[in-house]
Specification:
By secondary structure, the protein is mainly alpha-helical. The protein has helices at about 35-40, 45-50, 60-70, 75-85, 90-105, 115-140, 155-160, 170-180, 190-200, 205-215, 220-235, 235-250, 265-280, 285-300, 310-320, 325-345, and strands spanning about 20, 30, 30-35. The mean pLDDT is about 95. Bound molecules: acetyl coenzyme *A (ACO). Acetyl coenzyme *A binds near residues 220, 222 and 309.
């Protein structure tokens, strides 16, 4: 056993091969840089690229959009169950339950073939936004709004949440955030999905488990915690004192640091300028100033650059979205990456079953109950 290598948190361990994305030279999805995709592609084109391996032709793009529109309506019985969950249920738990419930209505849940998994991935991509928006409307005491087949996913999402025409600016901001969140090789939630499907379990189980992993504060849950930090700090003039005190007390500052990006997260760099733009258009410049002070000190003093969750929380705040939708929005996008990984894992599957290093008691003999204690 001693010859086996152990790395806490599996840091630096290569746990599998993938052709879906790489972080070796910036972040690339199937070879395309995220900057190129965020500048030029739509989220739907990016989703197609991740699932099918190539950017769609015009006709592939149109038929993909048509399929997503056809798949979007969610069975009313499922929405009724979602409506009956206790009001106090956090939205990430609603997403996890929603994904699990979708398995019961999917005609191909148990079919683990490559093509069936692509179809199921498309249905999840189309239906999870409908579940999130419906739950949010119900929580606000409003009726759910039906998905509009003529809209893009980003536009539809904002439409179903609010029932008012979203601005072009907010559609673009949402679309870019979904592109940047879509995929990130062997992060904790993706690895969770791969472990689950490696047992030959199904796509819905894998994605449900991945949502559970994403929820944690060290992973996707950080984007909601970032907003708590910014609310707590309150204004640019309080930022320096707050951050110096937090660092002195060894507080973990959400939105900073990354297991693999030690010199900076390219997604955060990209989103920062969009954030600044949206902040000045929406009267939120003071929050950008506050964020800049915190970022300069955390990066300078601790050598911890911001990760994607740092700007994305502000972006969603400027779009006036409720804080507990931030991580669920991450789910709506990352479902694409998770699904692509499940499909890739199953195309060349080997059960993922590592070893542990035993640190417990030496071998000992059975003791009858009267001799214990
Ligand atoms: N604030 C303050 N200190 C930090 C932070 C932070 N955000 N991140 C790491 N550190 C410190 C740790 O306290 C530790 O210090 P020590 O050696 O003095 O004890 C050291 O840096 C190493 O920390 P680890 O947790 O071992 O490093 P790891 O590589 O596991 O960190 C992680 C990665 C978990 C993301 C971490 O940076 C963190 O907790 N960040 C905040 C949560 C966050 O923003 N998560 C989002 C990740 S990106 C995403 O999911 C899109």
């Amino acid at each position: 056993m001693s010859e086996l290598i152990y790395s806490p948190g599996l840091e630096g361990v290569v746990a599998g091969e993938t052709s879906i994305s790489t972080i070796a030279d910036g972040l690339r999805y199937r070879g395309y840089s995220i900057e190129d995709l965020a500048d030029h592609a739509t989220f739907e084109e990016t989703a197609y690229l991740l699932l099918y391996g190539e950017l769609p032709t015009a006709s592939e793009r149109d038929s993909f959009a048509r399929r997503l529109a056809d798949f979007a309506p969610v069975d009313p019985t499922l929405l009724d169950i979602i409506a009956k969950l206790p009001l106090s249920t956090p939205m990430m738990d609603v997403m996890r339950t929603g994904c699990s419930l979708l398995a019961h209505w999917d005609p191909e849940t148990a079919d683990n073939s490559h093509d069936a998994n692509l179809r199921k991935a498309e249905r999840l991509l189309a239906q999870l936004p409908v579940i999130m928006a419906a739950r949010e409307r119900l929580r606000q005491g409003e009726s759910p709004i039906h998905p509009d087949a003529t809209r893009s996913l980003a536009s539809n999402l904002l439409w179903m949440l609010r029932g008012t025409e979203p601005s072009e600016r907010s559609i673009k901001a949402m679309d870019v955030s979904l592109i940047l969140y879509a995929e990130h090789e062997f992060n904790a939630s993706t690895f969770t999905a791969r472990v689950i499907c490696s047992t030959l379990s199904d796509l819905h189980s894998s994605i449900t488990g991945a949502i559970g992993a994403l929820k944690g504060a060290l992973h996707g849950g950080a984007n909601e915690r970032v907003m708590e930090v910014l609310d707590e700090v309150g204004s640019p003039d309080k930022a320096e004192a707050w951050v110096r005190d937090a660092l002195a007390r060894k507080v973990r500052i959400m939105g900073f640091g990354h297991r693999v990006y030690k010199t900076g997260d390219p997604r955060a760099r990209y989103l920062k300028s969009l954030c600044q733009q949206l902040a000045s258009e929406t009267g939120n410049k003071p929050m950008e100033q506050m964020a800049e002070v915190i970022e300069t000190i955390v990066t300078g003093e601790k050598g911890l650059p911001p990760n994607l969750d740092w700007p994305s929380a502000r972006l969603y705040h400027y779009m006036e979205l409720p804080v507990d939708l931030y991580t669920p929005l991450f789910v709506l996008s990352r479902v694409v990456g998770w699904s692509a990984h499940v499909i890739e894992q199953l195309d060349n599957n080997r059960l993922i079953r590592p070893r542990s290093r035993y640190v417990g008691a030496e071998a000992r003999s059975w003791k009858p109950v009267a001799q214990r204690g």
